[in-house]
Design brief:
This protein is an alpha/beta fold and 410 residues long. It has 13 helices and eight strands. The chain has a domain of 261 residues: Spore Coat Polysaccharide Biosynthesis Protein SpsA, Chain A. The chain starts with a helix and ends in a 5-residue tail after the last helix.
């Protein structure tokens, strides 16, 4: 076995191992996926960082006001990050007619969500903090389903929910709808082994005292919703996932915006990994599982792209040199025997991994009830597996390049 074969086998092993891990978690725990922890309605401050969201902020506030939760136990704090559109004016309109809606306008544009979120947390009156993006809408019962996780265990400092795509219309939004559903399913499986590593911005719930203790959100990290969980875990706190609670988030409708968003996510993830690399094999599950798992997840595609590029470059050079030699030697460039296909163990494992990946994707979609298995959705899933996910290694390469040069922004 040559070096390339060994590397390919290792790549296949890691892919199959991670997929098998999820399946081994799922089957014995499938009845626990949608568990609810009954809690009581305690006062919650909902912080909404906002920048140039004039089109969406009204819908978000409407969704928050419609929560099935006592009105006198909710305050909504919208922190406008010096928007250049009419976002602040929209919020002022709600503040005039709703006593529990407040507007804070930042003195500057911070260029990210962390600073306005921190401003809102400092201004909050209550012991529990919910954070939601200005373009997201939680379901009416989301908050009530999530708060019990904090009340039952004092070491739980953060709770996330299922983040799903809001009204996908364009093809890339429909692909993201598949991705979001699969991610939500996977995140719950990680929750079952105490390995939740992110509380996404669309809707998350925190214990305020824990946030204050660890120093609030990191304003220098592009994915502050990942970094805050790692910091909380490094201080001995835990994070949980409530799959039955759902929030719908607006997704990019064009490829360029989607690519830019994913660049930011990858840069922020790499920043967090570098920041906490010293915690490897330390700090409980953070170092024992989350950091290794996150590292493999982040760089597995990059590794695969490097291997793929090498193999195809080598094949191209060999074909080019063989063709050139055949022309000079006046021999046949292509023989009938060259068209035969010889199966190999590598091809077999590659095919198995791909088919299992498709099956797992349909399993996740079926559990999340996000798609009817029509011809259109089947085509979308295959496109998602064959094309959409194949773009991620290129995103990772671009992210590493931008991070190394320091040419990135929120």
């Amino acid at each position: 076995m040559g070096f390339v074969d060994f590397v390919f086998f290792f790549y296949m092993f890691v892919g199959l191992y991670m997929l098998s891990l999820f399946l081994f978690i799922y089957f014995p725990n499938r009845k626990l996926l949608f568990e609810d922890v009954k809690g009581k309605a305690e006062a919650v401050s909902i912080v909404v960082p906002c920048y140039n969201e004039e089109k969406h902020i009204g819908q978000t506030i409407d969704a928050l006001l419609a929560l099935e939760y006592p009105r006198d136990k909710i305050e909504i704090i919208v922190v406008d990050d010096k928007s250049s559109d009419g976002s602040a004016s929209v919020v002022r309109g709600y503040a005039r007619t709703h006593s529990n809606v407040r507007l804070i306008v930042n003195t500057r544009n911070s260029g990210g969500a962390a600073e306005p979120t921190n401003i809102g947390i400092r201004a909050a009156r209550y012991a529990y903090i919910a954070v939601t993006d200005a373009d997201s809408s939680p379901e009416k019962d989301a908050l009530l389903k999530m708060i019990g996780f904090l009340q039952r265990d004092e070491k739980v400092a953060a709770v996330t929910c299922a983040v799903l795509s809001k009204q996908p219309r364009t093809f890339i939004q429909k692909l993201q709808a598949i991705e979001y559903a699969v991610i939500a399913f996977n995140r719950k499986l990680l929750d079952l082994v105490d390995a939740v590593y992110v509380t996404p911005g669309p809707f998350a719930l925190y214990r305020k005292s824990a946030l204050v203790e660890v120093g609030l959100f990191d304003t220098k990290n592009l994915t502050q919703d990942i970094e805050i969980v790692w910091r909380l875990r490094s201080h001995g706190y835990r994070a949980r996932m409530c799959l039955s609670a759902r929030v719908f988030s607006t997704t990019p409708s064009r490829f360029k915006a989607w690519f830019k968003q994913r660049i930011r996510w990858n840069i922020g993830g790499t920043q967090t990994l570098l920041q906490y690399k010293s915690s490897l094999f330390q700090k409980g599950m953070l170092g024992a599982f989350i950091i290794p798992f996150f590292s493999f997840s982040l760089f597995l595609g990059l590794f695969g792209l490097s291997l793929f590029t090498y193999l195809w470059t080598r094949r191209f050079l060999v074909s080019y040199l063989s063709t050139k030699y055949s022309v000079y030697a006046n021999t046949a460039i292509l023989r009938l025997g060259d068209l035969t296909y010889t199966p190999s163990v590598l091809n077999f494992f590659g095919a198995v991994l791909f088919l299992l990946g498709i099956w797992f994707t349909f399993l996740a979609l079926g559990i999340m009830k996000q798609h009817q298995f029509s011809k259109a959705s089947i085509f979308s899933v295959f496109f998602y597996m064959l094309i959409y996910l194949m773009i991620y290694p290129f995103i990772m390469v671009t992210s590493v390049y931008k991070l190394a040069r320091g040419t990135y922004s929120w």
